[in-house]
Amino acid sequence: MQKRAILWDWNGTLLDDTDICVQCINSLLETRQLNLLNKERYRKIFTFPVKDYYEKAGFNFEKEKFEVPAMEFIRLYHNHLGEAALFPCVEDVLQQFKSKGFYQAILSAMEHESLVASLKDKGVFSYFDTVTGINNYYAHSKLDVGRKLVRSLPYEKKEILFIGDSLHDLEVAKALDIDCILVANGHQSKERLLQRTQTVVDKLVDVTELV
Fold it and tell me: How far is CA 167 from CA 8, 91, 197, 200, in A?
């Protein structure tokens, strides 16, 4: 791949936050006397928009509005966010691309100010030329902000690569007409990813061998 710019997803790609997401959603399920999720089940049903995933997990939005558990989850998630670590080799990989002159940006469905704070907390904010999140806490989609980001870059689309961990990342990349690599240690299982694309690696460091 002859690339000059990399768009990174954050949650599940660089930040290993799957376990705290399972922990937080189970807290909400428990208070509603619903069946809890294990990590395997979570990775099978997690999807975008997250409202669909909540319904698959057992929430009933005829009884309560989606925004109620969504905001409960966000509060719990941010209480535990400091417990999430970067995946192994993240800084080595980012530094490798930086030393080769790659433009690096974050494109995330996380609320923008929270995203910036998380990047700074983990000590990797300085690796990125641009950080782009969304303007709400409901993680609907990052396609609109992705379009604006790609339009702003001084690169041809064939020179841009998106690296994520979910089928939503793949869908966004296709809509933006850019290539995509998915890393199968985040929020969705490798089996699900392979149903839609063969450009899947097992761990982040494998990306450096393809780019």
Answer: 14, 24, 9, 11
Task: Supply the CATH number for residue 9's domain.
Answer: 3.40.50.1000
In the chain, the DSSP E strands lie at: 5-8, 15-16, 85-86, 103-111, 130-134, 160-164, 179-183, 200-201
- Name the residue with tokens 């704070």: 117
pLDDT tens-digit series, residues 59-74: 999 999 999 999 999 9
User: Could you give the residue ranges of the DSSP H alpha helices within 32-166?
Assistant: 39-45, 50-57, 67-80, 90-99, 112-121, 143-152
Residue 177 sits in which domain range? 5-16+84-210
Tokens of 94: 């980012």
Question: Model's pTM, two decimal places?
Answer: 0.93
* Distance linking the first and last C-alpha atoms of the chain: 5
